[in-house]
Amino acid sequence: MKLHEDRKTVVMVVDDAVDSIRMINDALEEAGMTVLVALEGNQALTISQNITPDVVLMDALMPHMDGFETCRRLKENPAFTDIPIIFMTGLSDTEHVVMGLNAGGVDYVTKPINTTELLARMDVHLTNARMTRSARNALDTAGQNLFAVDREGNLLWGTPQVCRCLPDSSHPEFPDVRARLEEWLSHNLEPGHVMPLRALDTPRSVEYLALVDGREYLLRLKTPQNQNSAAAALRERFQLTLRESDVLLWIANGKTNREIGQILDMSPRTVNKHLEQVFRKLGVENRTAAAASAIRLLATQ
């Protein structure tokens, strides 16, 4: 039974029981997967610094560092945000199941392991994880640098670009960034409210978008850009005139024809004429598609 795509699925198995590892390893290799083995939590953390697996199978009870703490530590790494962690345990009581899920696990299987059931559960979680990553990569491609934090300012998830721009939990800047977000979010914010934020020696800003399910604050990370340099980038990439690039820039900022006319001191009809040329040069049919093309370009500048 081979899961998903031609590229081999990489599985990290964290278990201190050698016999259990041998049985799981044989089943996974027979299914065409690459297996990484860690005999205890610290080994798993060391491996995670260099390799990000597609899925983790985690023994719940191990000496030194149990599976619950190992899971929490792995999930502090932004690269593991979407990596499914499945607990393996001989304990099926509610307390340990809840502990595993609260630590960041997505599922659990009981020992002795039924490998057919394990592979089926892995297949479901791998599919979900890949769909989530694809969605976040698409948001990055569209220039939507989105992320979510909890009430304390801890990162819950973020698009790949955001994870590159914000300090992770091991970075010296992390406590300050987290504290600033926590204090800002303690106010009754309206959607669109923006807070300046310096992260990794780069001046940026964070825009509040919404509170999801009463616990997840959806935010957008923005990098201030000089208006002249942004218009110049649009001009060069799409072979636009000066006025056409100005109009496209304001379209990308969500302005109406009337607002653009007021900003650029021209009539809405003139704005519309410039837009017709912009659509032709960009090969698009409407302002939404034109704005998306501009946002994608500016996000890479």
Question: Could you explain the architecture of this structure?
Answer:
Keywords: DNA-binding, Phosphoprotein, Transcription, Transcription regulation, Two-component regulatory system. The two termini are 44 Å apart. Helices cover 48% and strands 19% of the residues. It has 12 helices and 10 strands. The chain has a 5-stranded parallel sheet, with helices on both faces.
Key descriptive features of the protein:
transcription regulation; 19% strand; five-stranded antiparallel sheet; 301 residues; elongated; DNA-binding; CheY-like_superfamily; DNA binding; alpha/beta; disordered N terminus
Name the structural class.
Answer: alpha/beta
Overall geometric form: elongated
Tell me the β content. Answer: 15-25%
Low-confidence stretches: 1-5
Rg from Cα: 24 Å
Distance between the termini: 44 Å
Query: Strand sequence of the main sheet, in spatial order?
Result: 2-1-3-4-5
Q: Total helix count?
A: 12
- Helix proportion range: 40-55%
**How many β-strands, per DSSP?**
10
Q: What's the quick description here?
A:
This protein is α/β, with parallel strands linked by helices.
Outline the secondary-structure elements.
Elements: E1 10-14, H1 18-30, E2 34-38, H2 41-48, E3 55-59, H3 67-75, E4 85-89, H4 94-102, E5 107-110, H5 115-141, E6 146-149, E7 155-158, H6 160-165, H7 174-185, E8 194-199, E9 202-212, E10 216-222, H8 227-238, H9 242-252, H10 257-264, H11 268-282, H12 287-299
Parallel strand pairs: 1-2, 1-3, 3-4, 4-5
Antiparallel strand pairs: 6-7, 6-10, 8-9, 9-10
Helix pairs in contact: 2-3, 8-9, 9-11, 9-12, 10-11
